[in-house]
Write a structure and sequence with these properties.
alpha/beta; 553 residues; Glutamyl-tRNA Synthetase, domain 2; 16 strands; binds glutamic acid; Rossmann fold
């Protein structure tokens, strides 16, 4: 071993006591079945998850679970500017709302599970330094003392001469310092970063394989990138990625497409250490078409649908969000869902080949549609229980009513439900109130009625009186309608719509106008589920009260 290099490495990393071999032993290859994938979601502790990152966490989770592998949550806090207080807990909560729970990694602000930790980068300092020291010892990394203004100057020259920007070749000034010079500078207290002594040649081409995009050709990396920063001695993303994903035995790195440009750097780092390379999948951006018709990245600042909390607050069932995420994750999922209406995600396997490389369009209306379908298939009791949970957090007034009138509420939710073709009106738990509020007297106090077809006050009073006193039969649905039609004939309304259409002038209106009037009087709305069922649940006394209220309004 070169004693000069040893002296330099010891000066740069005085606290390193372990070797890479020590860590290899501490974090051995995982004993997993053939084909099992180890994935990780690696956010900064920013306190929340954006829809795009929820999608990638979901994909990480799915790939690991499809293959009986491991899904880790690693917190990347090397850029301290991006950390917020309780930033990990916020992320965990967002993930938990969608049942995306890590098998390994951080499980609270301070605790973790698994044998490959610490899972928070700021606590892995010693490990990074051990790996960096190894590179210095092998003359594969060096200290760089260039100041910010020197680096700016280099950049200006490069811009002026239209040369590639970066620290490489003859621009990599500190690369040519002698070991003695470097040692002297450190001893004099000069600040330094640790840079890779890149063995690459920009004029050579390499082909790297991406699981989504296939083979991609790049120039070899020749940048002497920073591995360890100067002030806090934390690693850069590039170096932390190498160390962490190697030691955590990650098999699949799934990350945003913004990292494609760094792919050659990462490949080179793995080669230098002679580590087994993980497979890479660079995922496309999540886009939206905005009001002006422009396709752009979903923005957490501008778009409310970009925050995952939005779905929780709106009461979109997490299962529906996950089904939707799967439709944007894999292009063949929608067809699968059509053929597998139960939509059990465990039965669908994630396929890298079905990921769109060009980015996916986030379409809230499609999500709402999936949600509608999903909710229509729930039983009345399931709707009740889930709604109870949601309202407890977000709508206390409705929650209290649901508690007070449990069986009654379940009966309401059961109207036109639990059959072959269930009614699809609820979009979310939040929306249910607007579809059923009229069934609760407490919510029917200061309501505005929609306009019924029949508007004459006297006529309204007559119809409702005659109906209530003479024709209302709530013992049997068929009979109920027969009686309504009889009443229509008696009062001058066509009981047969076809006949009405032939000669409308012969009638005051038709049976639909009459049932429409009853509907508005009872519910305030022109459009509701089955009127007979509604009346059954309201029962006679309340029907009477509501007719009176309507007549007097
Ligand atoms: N912390 C990185 C990010 O948020 C993670 C990228 C990766 O998954 O490797 O973009």
């Amino acid at each position: 071993m070169n004693t000069k290099l040893q002296e330099l490495a010891d000066l740069m990393f005085p606290n390193v006591t372990k070797t890479i071999e020590d860590y290899e032993k501490m974090y051995p290859e995982r004993d997993l079945k053939e084909g099992a994938c180890v994935t990780r979601f690696a956010p900064s502790p920013t306190g929340f998850v954006h829809m795009g990152s929820l999608l990638s966490a979901f994909e990480d989770y799915k790939v690991a679970h499809d293959t009986n592998g491991v899904f880790c949550l690693r917190i990347e806090d090397t850029d301290q500017k991006r950390s917020v207080e309780n930033g990990i807990q916020g992320i965990l909560n967002d993930l938990k709302n969608f049942d995306i729970t890590p098998d390994e990694g951080m499980i609270s602000e301070t605790e973790s599970i698994g044998n490959y930790g610490p899972y928070i980068q700021s606590e892995r300092m010693e490990i990074y330094h051990t790996f960096a020291k190894y590179l210095v010892l092998h003359d594969l990394a060096y200290p760089c003392f260039c100041t910010a203004s020197e680096l700016d100057e280099t950049r200006e020259i490069q811009e002026l001469n239209k040369e590639r920007i970066g620290y490489y070749g003859s621009f990599a000034k500190c690369r040519s310092l002698t070991i003695d010079e470097a040692i002297a500078k450190i001893k004099a207290g000069e600040e330094f970063v640790v840079r890779l002594k890149s063995p690459g040649n920009f004029n050579s081409k390499i082909v790297l394989h991406d699981e989504v995009r296939g083979d991609i050709e790049f120039p070899e990396n020749d940048l002497d990138i920073v591995l360890i920063k100067s002030t806090d001695k934390l690693p850069t993303y590039h170096f932390a990625h190498l160390v962490d994903d190697h030691l955590m035995r990650t098999t699949h790195v799934m990350r945003g497409e913004e990292w494609i440009a760094s792919f050659p750097i990462h490949d080179q780092l793995f080669s230098i250490f002679n580590f087994k390379k993980p497979k890479y999948a660079h995922l496309g951006l999540v886009m939206k078409i905005d009001e002006t018709g422009t396709r752009r990245k979903l923005s957490k600042r501008k778009d409310k649908e970009a925050s995952v909390e939005f779905y929780h607050k709106e009461g979109i069932p997490k299962e529906a969000v996950k089904l939707y995420l799967m439709t944007i994750a894999n292009s063949n999922f929608e067809e699968w869902l059509d053929n597998n209406p139960k939509g059990d995600l465990n039965e669908f396997k994630f396929d890298f080949k079905k990921v769109s490389a060009s980015g996916t369009l986030f379409d809230v209306s499609k999500l709402f549609n999936i949600s509608k379908n999903y909710l229509s298939k729930q039983s009345a009791v399931e709707i009740y229980n889930n709604l109870l949970k949601w309202t407890e957090e977000f709508d206390k007034e409705f929650y209290d009513l649901l508690v007070k009138y449990k069986d009654y509420s379940i009966n309401i939710f059961n109207i036109e439900r639990e059959n072959e073709k269930p009614r699809k009106d609820y979009i979310s738990y939040k929306s249910i109130r607007e579809f059923v509020f009229y069934m609760y007297d407490e919510l029917f106090e200061n309501i505005e009625y929609e306009q019924a077809k029949i508007t004459d006050k006297e006529e309204i009073k007559k119809i409702l009186d005659v109906y209530y006193n003479e024709y209302m039969d709530l013992n049997d649905k068929d009979n109920w309608f027969i009686k309504v039609k009889e009443m229509c004939d008696k009062l001058g309304y066509a009981s047969n719509i076809k006949e009405y259409k032939k000669n409308p002038e012969l009638f005051k209106g038709n049976v639909a106008d009459v049932t429409g009037l009853i509907r508005v009087a009872l519910t305030s709305k022109n459009n509701t589920p089955d009127l007979y069922e509604i009346q059954k649940l309201l029962d006679k006394t309340r029907i009477k009260e509501r007719f009176e209220k309507y007549i007097n309004c």
